[in-house]
Amino acid sequence: MSHITLVLPHLLPLPEFAPDLVRALQTPALAALLTRTSAYERGAAADTARALPHEQWLARTLGLSPEGLPAFAAAAMRGFGLDPEDGTWYIVNPAHIQIARSHSMMADLRHLGLGEDESRALYEAARPLCEEIGHPLQYGDAQTWFLRADDWAAIEAATPDTVAGMDLSDFVPRGKQALPLRRLQNEVQMLWHTHPVNAAREARRLPGVNSFWLWGASKASTGALARAGGRLASIGVPGWVRGLSSESLASLDGLDSALAQDGLLVVGMLADAAIASDWGVWLQQVQHLEEKLFAPLHAALVQGRIKELKLVLSSRETLAEFTTTAMAQRKFWRRPTLERLT
Predict the structure, then answer these.
(1) 202: number of Cβ within 10 Å
(2) What's the confidence (pLDDT) of residue 316?
(3) pLDDT, the chain, mean
């Protein structure tokens, strides 16, 4: 029997929409998992200026930052087979910055649709500019690169999902050490502006890759993951989470292997719709999770194949943790509801 922790970012809807959304859901298995529990905690995250609640929870749980800071770079590098050596590394995400009337904002990176060939070409164009100022750039995957910048260690930057769709002026790094970062960004932006990759993307009506977002600073010495709770598997997550994972699932159809042993499963399939406030798609995704995830989990729990299940749910500001067991699921006097999502 296994102990499973399931992390579901954005399953808690925004408070102003929650009552209507909960009424629209038909998810009896999820309702049973959330209602018939042996432990339940819910509260606002202490500080969401740099990382969303589930990102803070991951940083603490994986032993990367007791304070919940998004110090993921070195650990994610190791997942891509890269050696962080000694020094301070940042995650670099190619990005599309939109200019609105009164401010600029970064689009959700999931919408970029950047292919490996495109990413490699942009990476090779930017790499000499980074190396000229003594900052090696390494490639993880199409959306996840890594920059060593020991002298920028004091730069505190927010995670991409914290920033997506928000006014960038509230999140741009400031201070003396941010000046060379801005210079590098400007040089890369000018280089990419006329790059053939962006010309081809424009012809296909795709957003241009016109900047990058730097965040996730960590040192190699603090980049080792805590594995006491078993392995980490993931599905539908950004590249940096895949880098932290020991197994990346292609779909929920491969769930059985992830549930056969102790570990942590991160399911990021709701992020796109929630960040965009596309609640119609969000409802469809939750219904899909009911069929492919919650119902199988509930059955495995009742049948004794899972000894304990912990669900970690989040919104932009709130984190909720539910623990349930086969014994807890026998509390028939507790009528299953979705009230705890509101």
Answers:
(1) 11
(2) 93
(3) 92
Q: Within a 10 A sphere around the Cβ of 184, how many other Cβ atoms?
A: 21
At residue 282, what is the residue type?
W
CA distances from 326 to 17, 293, 312, 321 (A): 32, 17, 18, 17
Say if residue 116 is exposed, middle or buried (CB neighbours under 10 Å; 0-12, 13-18, 19+). Answer: exposed
Q: Which residue has the tokens 């432990």?
A: 39
- State how far the Cα of 231 lies from the Cα of 318, in Å rounded to an integer: 25
Token pair of 113 as six digits: 């649709």
Cα distances (angstroms) measured from residue 175 to each of 48, 181, 182: 20, 10, 11
Between CA 185 and CA 188 the distance in angstroms is 5
Q: State pLDDT tens for residues 72-92.
A: 999 999 999 999 988 999 999
Amino acid at 288: H
* 67-71, 191-195, 226-230: least confident range: 226-230
Measured torsion, CA atoms of residues 14, 15, 17, 18, in degrees rounded to the nearest 10: 100
> Tell me: the pLDDT tens digits for 45-69?
877 889 999 999 999 999 999 999 9
Tokens of 65: 């930052």
Whole-angstrom CA distances from 342 to 46, 54, 247 are 19, 17, 32
Whole-angstrom Cα distance, residue 171 to residue 189?
Answer: 18
Length, in residues, of the chain: 342
